[in-house]
UniProtKB/TrEMBL annotation:
GO terms for molecular function: beta-glucosidase activity. GO terms for biological process: cellulose catabolic process. Keywords: Carbohydrate metabolism, Cellulose degradation, Glycosidase, Hydrolase, Polysaccharide degradation. This is beta-glucosidase. It catalyses: Hydrolysis of terminal, non-reducing beta-D-glucosyl residues with release of beta-D-glucose. Belongs to the glycosyl hydrolase 1 family. InterPro entries: GH, GH_1_N_CS, Glyco_hydro_1, Glyco_hydro_1_beta-glucosidase. Its EC number is 3.2.1.21.
Length: 459
């Protein structure tokens, strides 16, 4: 039986600036928080940095040719804020603007639609030195940056994403500490979560002021939670808090101007002085689409005893007394990241989003992919596990679309193997293999399979 996606479905691939560009000290680029963090001993596996990454800065023509051969209709990439404004202030670096102009023009010449993400984690270090996302002043600075990008590129960019995964920005960067800037302070994380929500709204308005007819969205990492014992009220409370923290915080903010009340109650005095009068009006903004990054579902099997110590630098500012290990039946279904493969979760998630927030015009899957231990044999990468992951998730997505979920596009993560943040080059997500010594690109079996799916608009 053939499985088809809607006519005009947007097939794409995705990357991020720090993960692929390299050229860290070229053409006036400023220092980012990931330059600083990755060069701090013990923060990244093997001491890897993004100094060279995939050398995309010098090889983007080759990468566009690969995308052209794949048949993708769109490419989601991020702009490096410190390439355009090295110090995070109003002083421009025109060579940075020139690079993205050349990239955008080359994509359009190849009949590939550029989708721009304004912020994918490479904050100018000078702004972090002033408090980063925990300092409310960053909202205005981000809006200025967004306006400058709209003025420079808005005549050719129809789809804009303000921020990628602000949950990771806030909680991994300022609470858990495993991402740049490596802070471990719950109050800073709550402030960052609030300021990223304000920044999305401010940037949306700034872009629309320059380009009123473009579409502006926000990309969130989202997931479903499987509850082993739904009759346990403590487990259900933990699940509700986790759902609000991961899935609802930013959507509720731009939809209603308010945050989930259960989280606000849980934060208690930690949120003191973070919220200001009038913030509800500033938070609420028309968001034209929701970008969803989906990799795996989560699990809460049971609550842990009261005397179990809270996890230092955790994800939520209350004791994480939940056993979140996947059930034994799924223990052998893990990616190299240790994430459970749950393809049905993608379809369930987009249906849930449409049910809970029907006012969101449409959804785009802005990231979906998997890391496995790729082996090169005679110049070929037969990545059957990644290929299976891709196919099964697309089947789940198509089924949800057939049931009414308004999904208009899918961007495979990632076009290239790349710098996988704190994992360095140890984890490979690419459809295309990268030799980090020679920078040779080699399409994997998953890329060849994706090419066929795109050509058929289905299976």
């Amino acid at each position: 039986m053939s499985v088809k996606f809607p006519e005009g479905f947007l097939w794409g691939t995705a990357t991020a600036s720090y993960q692929i560009e390299g050229a860290f000290d070229v053409d006036g680029r400023g220092v980012s928080i990931w330059d600083t963090f990755s060069k701090t001993p013990g923060k990244v596996v093997n001491g890897d940095t993004g100094d060279n990454a995939c050398d995309h800065y010098n090889r983007f023509d080759e990468d566009i040719a690969i995308m052209k051969d794949l048949g993708v209709k769109a490419y989601r990439f991020s702009i490096a804020w410190p390439r355009l404004f090295p110090q995070g202030d109003s002083v421009r670096e025109e060579r940075g603007f020139d690079f993205y102009n050349r990239l955008i023009n080359a994509l359009i010449a190849a009949d590939i639609e550029p989708m721009v993400t304004l912020y994918h984690w490479d904050l100018p270090q000078t702004l972090e030195d002033q408090g980063g996302w925990a300092n409310r002043e960053i909202v205005e600075k981000f809006a200025h940056y967004a306006q400058a990008c709209a003025q420079a590129f808005g005549d050719r960019i129809n789809s804009w994403i303000t921020l990628n995964e602000p949950w990771c920005v806030s909680w991994l960067g300022y609470s858990n500490g495993v991402h740049a800037p490596g802070k471990k302070d719950f109050s800073l994380a709550i402030a960052s979560a609030h300021h990223t929500a304000l920044a999305h709204a401010a940037a949306s308005r700034a872009i629309k002021k320059v380009c009123p007819n473009v579409e502006v969205g926000l990309t969130l990492n989202m997931s479903n939670t499987h509850i082993e014992n739904p009759e346990d009220p403590e487990v259900m409370e933990l699940a509700a808090l986790g759902d609000s923290n991961l899935n609802r915080w930013w959507i509720d903010a731009f939809s209603t101007g308010h945050y989930p009340q259960n989280l606000l109650d849980a934060y208690g005095d930690l949120k003191k002085d973070i919220f200001k009068p009038g913030d509800a009006e500033l938070l609420k903004v028309q968001t034209d689409f929701l970008g969803v990054n989906y990799y795996s579902d989560g699990f809460i099997r049971s609550a842990l005893p009261e005397d179990k110590p809270a996890i230092e630098g955790g994800f939520m500012p209350f004791p994480q007394r939940a056993n979140m290990a996947p059930p034994p039946s799924l223990a052998n279904s893990l990616t190299a990241m240790g994430w459970v493969v749950t393809p049905e979760g993608l379809g369930n998630l987009v249906k849930k989003i449409h049910r809970d927030w029907p006012h969101i015009p449409y959804i785009v899957i802005t990231e979906n992919g998997s890391a496995y231990e790729d082996v090169v044999v005679d110049g070929e990468i037969n990545d059957t596990e990644r290929t299976s992951y891709l196919v099964r998730h697309l089947q789940s997505l198509q089924s949800a679309i057939a049931e009414g979920a308004p999904v208009k596009g899918y961007f495979a993560w990632s076009l290239l193997d790349n710098f996988e943040w704190a994992e360095g080059y140890n984890k490979r997500f690419g459809l295309v293999h990268v030799d980090y010594t020679t920078f040779k690109r080699t399409p994997k079996l998953s890329a060849k399979t994706y090419k066929v799916i795109i050509s058929k608009n289905g299976f």
